[in-house]
Amino acid sequence: MTFLTTGLGAHIRSASIRGKVRGGEHSARSVLFLIALWLCLFVAFGVLLTLIITTLIDGSSRLDSRLVTEYPASGPERAGLRPAILGSIWVIGVTAVMTIPLGVAAAVHLEEFADRKKWFNRAIELNVQNLAAVPSIVYGLLALGFLALLGVQNKNIVIGGALALGLLVLPVIIISTREALRAVPLEIRQGSLALGATPLQTVWRQTLPASVPGIATGAILGLSRALGEAAPLLVLGALVFVSFDPNGLLSGYTTMPIQIFNWTSRPQAEFHELASAGSILLLLILLAMNGLAIFIRNRYQQRW
Amino acid sequence: MTTNTRAASYTTGSDQKRTIHFPDEHAHRSKGLPAVPNAIIECKDVNVYYNAFRAVTGVDLAFGSKEITALIGPSGCGKSTLLRSLNRMNDLIDGARVEGSVTFQGEDIYHREVDAIEVRRRIGMVFQKPNPFPKSIYDNIAYGPRVIGMKASNMDDLVEEALTRAALWTEVKDKLKQSAFGLSGGQQQRLCIARTIAVKPDVILMDEPCSSLDPIATSRIEDLMYELREDYTIIIVTHNMQQAARVADRTAFFTALASEETGDRTGLLVEYDLTKKIFESPADQRTEDYISGRFG
Question: Quick one: pLDDT band at residue A99, thresholds 50, 70, 90?
Answer without folding.
Answer: very high
